[in-house]
Amino acid sequence: VIADHIRACSFTVVDGVIPGNEGRGYVLRRIARRAIRHGYKLGARTPFFHKIVAELVNQMGEAYPELRAAQTRVTEVLKQEEERFFQTIQHGMEILEHALASGTKEIDGNTAFKLHDTYGFPVDLTADVCRERGVTVDQAGFNAAMEHQRSQARAAGKFKMAAGLEYSGTPTAFHGYEHLVCETSKVVAVYVDGTPVDAAQAGDDAVIVLDHTPFYAESGGQAGDAGELRNATSRVVVADTFKIQADVFGHHGRVVEGGVKVGDSLVARVNAEQRAKTVRNHSATHLMHKALREVLGSHVQQKGSLVTFERTRFDFAHNAPVTDEQIRKVEALVNAEVLANAAASAQVMALDDAQKSGAMMLFGEKYGESVRVLSIGSSKELCGGTHVKATGDIGLFKIVAESGVAAGIRRIEALTGDNALSYCQALEGTVNGLASTLKAAPADVPARIHSLQDSLRALEKEVAALKGKLASTQGDALSAQAVDVNGVKVLAAQLDGADATTLRTTMDQLKNKLKTAVIVLVAVDGAKVQIAAGVTADVTSKVKAGELVNFVAGQVGGKGGGKPDMAMAGGTEPAHVPAALASVQAWVTQRV
To answer: For a Cys staple, 241 with which of 73, 143, 215, 272, CB 3.0–4.6 Å?
Structure first.
């Protein structure tokens, strides 16, 4: 089983799939976890599955060179999945074993769902274990629990206001690819607070449906257009546009002048500056996707995107952080396409023709019989969004953030055009400000900072050494303040200017000097109180440092703990420190 599954998993990863919770990624996860469970049965308690990739390459790499080329990535992807599963498999098996130990002949659906949802046990894996014991799984109960979770997710994820709007009229004709203005758009529906009305008045937040519009409705990751709707007497400021249905656009905004009623004719005008910024970001996203595949590998696939007039955010399948060097290569490739100023074109064609043309499609997406294929630079993808007319319109492309958002999913955020320029100018301003503060040329700022860090580390060592000397001096003076209680030296004192390290160092010196002792040292810094309690080894049978430090800390608004011979605590009421120190001798007297 393990040998069969390592082949299936490895070749699937080579094809660009990564373990996930849906689609083919979930199939891969189920196969891998089934193999790992068999290894667990055989006694494996640490990750082993990914290590077999090397032997698979030895045996099949010559016949399948793509497997050899992707060996490192395949190993890393399976290792990450395996490590995640090994973190939970023991707990999951314990729950399952406990359920089976009851002698039941059927594992209930809720238990099977808990194993799936909390511990990553696919239900067929649970069924495998149960089958070996002659036990069945309540599949209907599992399905009911799964559907309940999905229903909750759907309820929580309803998109904006669209889910609450009912519409049965004609579809919206979209003209936004060619035009930013429609001179005569007829109002066919008006909604206020989600309810259809005949008219909306000044001050109302409304959703307006038009028969014709240049406004792009949010879809495919691209944000909806903003702008205005107006005629001689009325004006609506549109903040967003979304889809009520696949071909019905809702213009969401506020009526700021007059009123709008069903049947009115309006001029629909898109915010041209905001649209221009959005299309720059969207077109750059296509070029970036292509560049990421060139730099990182063909396994890179889009997993989500958000394109607004401010920036583009792109999620993609990749199992490691994108390095600074790789980011620079992606930026260079995209900006080279921008400089080439190649014309962009979009064609509507049959899905089969689009596939034959080599257009990239997203696995798992549902496409109609006709699709829109965007060709821009060296990129060709299916896309219904709005785009620049030529790559040079993008202006400047700059990646500003890279992060991980889920297992095997990375996120890149980027800017274009004047937004990218503003970002670069702000960075330049920061660097120039640092250079001025450091009295250095901008190019010398890194070296100057490294020099200052070296100086700081040297000063910190010097301060630590001086504090050690101070502790030694104070220790000598403090030892004379110790009081003898039944043969045990008891000392409770405040050590001005000390930090936690100094308290511990001074404590050790006092223990060595006093031999048989119980010691409490306190340092105050503003409203912060630090407490150290120490007990020599020959007294710990009677007095515990942890109990003592909590006794003192409780009087100054804090608590702490530690070992019988040494404990630390903190507090927030420095005014009570003198009384707390004065109470130590009586507390120790009761115990020795």
So the answer is: 215
Mean local confidence (pLDDT), 289-296 = 96
Q: Which residue from 303, 305, 306, 307 is spatially nearest to 280, judged by alpha carbons?
A: 307
Residues in the chain: 592
* Phi and psi, residue 366, nearest 5°: -100, 120
- β-pairing, 136-137 vs 106-107, is parallel
Does residue 377 contact residue 418 with C-beta atoms inside 8 Å? Answer: no
What is d(CA 555, CA 548) in angstroms, rounded to the nearest whole number? 11
- Dihedral of the alpha carbons of 187, 192, 194, 195, in degrees to the nearest 10: -80
> Using the 8-state DSSP alphabet, how is residue 365 labeled?
-
pTM, 2 dp: 0.68
| Residue 561 confidence (pLDDT) | 83
pLDDT tens sequence across 386-436: 999 999 999 999 999 999 987 788 999 999 999 999 999 999 999 999 999
Question: In the numeric block, which tokens belong to residue 459?
Answer: 């000063």
CA 200, CA 260: separation in Å to the nearest integer? Answer: 5
What is the residue type of 321? P
∠ Cα 579 581 582 (to 5°): 60
**Distance from C-alpha of 266 to C-alpha of 181, rounded to nearest angstrom:** 11
Residue labelled with tokens 């599955």? 49
Instruction: For 353, list phi and psi in degrees, rounded to 5.
Output: -65, -35
State the Cα angle at 155 between 153 and 157, rounded to 5°: 65
Chain segment 146-192, per-residue pLDDT in tens: 888 877 765 554 444 444 688 988 999 999 999 999 999 999 999 99
Quote the CA–CA distance of 242 and 164 in Å, as a whole number. Answer: 13
Cα separation, 442 vs 430, whole angstroms: 10
- How far lies 432's CA from each of 399, 401, 424, in Å? 21, 22, 12
Helix (H) or strand (E) holding 10: helix 2-14
Query: If you ran DSSP here, which 8-state letter would residue 273 be given?
Result: H
Residues 6+ apart with CB under 8 A from 78: 9, 10, 13, 32, 49, 50, 53
What's 21's DSSP letter? S
Mean pLDDT on 244-273: 96
Handedness of CA 166, 171, 175, 181 (dihedral sign): negative
How far is 395 from 421, CA to CA, in rounded Å? 9
